[in-house]
Amino acid sequence: MNPEVPTVELVGVSLTYAGPPVVAALHDVDLRLRRNEYVAVVGPSGSGKSTLLNILGLLDRPTGGTFRLSGIDVSTLPEADRAALRGERIGFVFQSFHLLEHRTAVENLLVATLYRPTKVGRADRVARAEQVLTRVGMRERMYARPAQLSGGERQRVAIARALMNAPDLLLCDEPTGNLDSVNAAKVLALIDEVHQAGQTVVVITHDPVVAARAERRIAITDGSVTESG
Ligand SMILES: Nc1ncnc2c1ncn2[C@@H]1O[C@H](COP(=O)(O)OP(=O)(O)OP(=O)(O)O)[C@@H](O)[C@H]1O
Ligand SMILES: [Mg+2]
Fold it and tell me: Which entry of 149, 209, 216, 218 is 20 to 30 Å from 10 by CA?
């Protein structure tokens, strides 16, 4: 992939929820993220952070403006194409992990491969899952289920799942929000490693300590984006 092409390019992006009541959640957002940038998004509750993440993750479509993901204009793509791109190019990490409780860590990673258009054999997918879990420090526990894991370990499994398809963009919504400080530090160290390995990373956070890890901080207030240094 051409490193000159930004991973994310939003031009005049707006999202208005039809309601009722009508909510202008984002307005006229311009944002460009270079490949391999590490960006924190901060702002008060209700300011539009998750809305922005949902747009970047192709879960929501802007109601105005243009979004190019790695050079592809995704604002006008049919839903099926957006879903395929989402599976291939986007990894999500959520505050509450969103793991399947009754499945092992390996099985949770296999879920990430179900929606891919190209089918890879199960043995190869399991090998890939084991490799990624080893990378996040979960080699010893990869056949454990979430209930048998600590919060920090669950989040490492969730990060591994997000990395399973080697996405262009890793999107994290309050990734340390449910963790104590020790586990939070481990998860942040892992996100740093992911960034150093070449990934573009966006982290939404309320926590100034988390925001300080990123190279760049973006603030959202009432649906408008400002660079906050
Ligand atoms: N599906 C929806 N339908 C209508 N309004 C919505 C919807 N989702 C979010 N909103 C509204 O859009 C605005 C932005 O919400 P968003 O979830 O992006 O905030 P946030 O910055 O992530 O907040 P928090 O820090 O509490 O997670 C809020 O006013 C919210 O009430
Ligand atoms: Mg939110």
Answer: 209
Q: How far is CA 82 from the centre of its chain?
A: 15
The CATH code for residues 8-227 is 3.40.50.300
Tell me which of 3-7, 156-160, 171-175, 203-207 is least confident. 3-7
Atom of ligand 1 nearest to the CA of 54: 18
Residues in the chain: 229
Would you say the C-alpha torsion 76, 81, 86, 88 has a positive or negative sign? negative
Going by alpha carbons, the residue nearest to atom 17 of ligand 1 is 50
Q: Model-level pTM greater than 0.90? A: yes
The pLDDT assigned to 1 comes to: 60
Nearest to 130 by CA among 157, 103, 149: 157
- Within 8 A by CB and 6+ apart from 185, the residues are none
